[in-house]
Amino acid sequence: MRSSRHKRKLQRGAHAANGFTLRLTQLDADKGALNQRLETIALQGIPNYFGTQRFGYQGGNLGEARDYAARKALPEQRAVRSRLLSTARSYLFNRVLAARVVDGSWQKAQVGDLLAFTDSRSFFPAGVDECSDPRLAILDLHPTGPQWGEGPSPAGGATAALENTVADDESVLRDWLVRAGMEHERRILRLPIGRLTWHYPESDILQLEFVLP
Q1: What are the CB-based long-range contacts (under 8 Å, 24+) for 35-42?
Q2: Is the pLDDT confidence value at 33 over 90?
Q3: What is the largest CA-CA distance in the chain?
Q4: What is the pTM of this model?
Q5: Bridge-partner residues for 20, per DSSP?
Q6: Cβ neighbours of residue 128 under 8 Å, at least 6 residues apart?
Q7: What pLDDT score was predicted for residue 96?
Q8: Where in the numbering of this chain does the TRUD domain appear (predicted)?
Q9: Contact between 146 and 136 (Cβ < 8 Å)
Q10: Domains in the chain: boundaries
Q11: Residue 142 contacts residue 116 (beta carbons within 8 Å)
Q12: Structure confidence by residue, pLDDT tens digits, 87-105
């Protein structure tokens, strides 16, 4: 049997999940506190931030995006344009998520939220009944944050107020995304860590196994 690279990019939905095994060595930690934290992660997931790689070396992508936005211009090269627009949207999303982590609402639905399932790009508004949907507790359904584009936030209530406050604070980036014709999309605020298990092969080694969607 042979395996080799292929040139085609994996499309969304082409595979169900990614499994990981991580081994941390030279561990020096309170194992009781560490176990408690891991149990919390298994139950609640983690904030679904875009990682630092999205923003480039020392945040260079964001700096480039701000420069183009200030000049009300777009890169001519399609790949560069796509990268910088994605960077700007990711930055606005992270700011909204950070605010909801601070106020504790990132892992629970509130009236006015837009909810989405883990593996879906569609979303629907949360009323009183939706906020008590049992699928929220099992990390199948989640509140979402904005991937900014044309038009105001489709959320309502306190959610819309927060998202519009962040967008107003970054109005140059927001207006740049709108002029670029980006569509408003949503991204779940929390990332479920599936099948999370851990053990200590040795006193100073922690091995983690988990699945990400």
Answers
A1: 35/198, 38/196, 38/198, 38/208, 41/193, 41/196, 42/193, 42/196
A2: yes
A3: 57
A4: 0.88
A5: 210
A6: 111
A7: 97
A8: 45-191
A9: no
A10: 16-45+192-212, 57-190
A11: yes
A12: 999 999 999 999 999 999 9
Query: How many angstroms separate the Cα of 20 from the Cα of each of 47, 125, 211?
Result: 18, 33, 6
Q: What is the CATH number assigned to the segment(s) 57-190?
A: 3.30.2340.10
Kindly state the DSSP code that residue 196 receives in the 8-state scheme.
E
Looking at residue 9, its amino acid is K
Instruction: Count how many residues are written for the chain.
Output: 213
Q: How far apart are CA 163 and CA 124, in angstroms?
A: 17
Q: How far is CA 210 from CA 28, 76, 193, in A?
A: 22, 41, 6
Instruction: Locate 72 and state its tokens.
Output: 């009300």
Strand partners for 47: 190
Describe the chain by its helix, strand, coil percentages, rounded to 5: 40, 20, 40
Q: What is the pLDDT of residue 17?
A: 75
Distance CA 140, CA 152 (A): 27
Interior/surface letters 174-201, b for 16+ CB within 10 angstroms, e for the rest: bebbeebebebebbbbbbbbbebebeee
Among 144, 147, 143, 145, residue whose Cα is nearest residue 183: 147
d(CA 189, CA 19): 21
Q: Using CA atoms, how far apart are residues 102 and 137, in angstroms rounded to an integer? A: 20
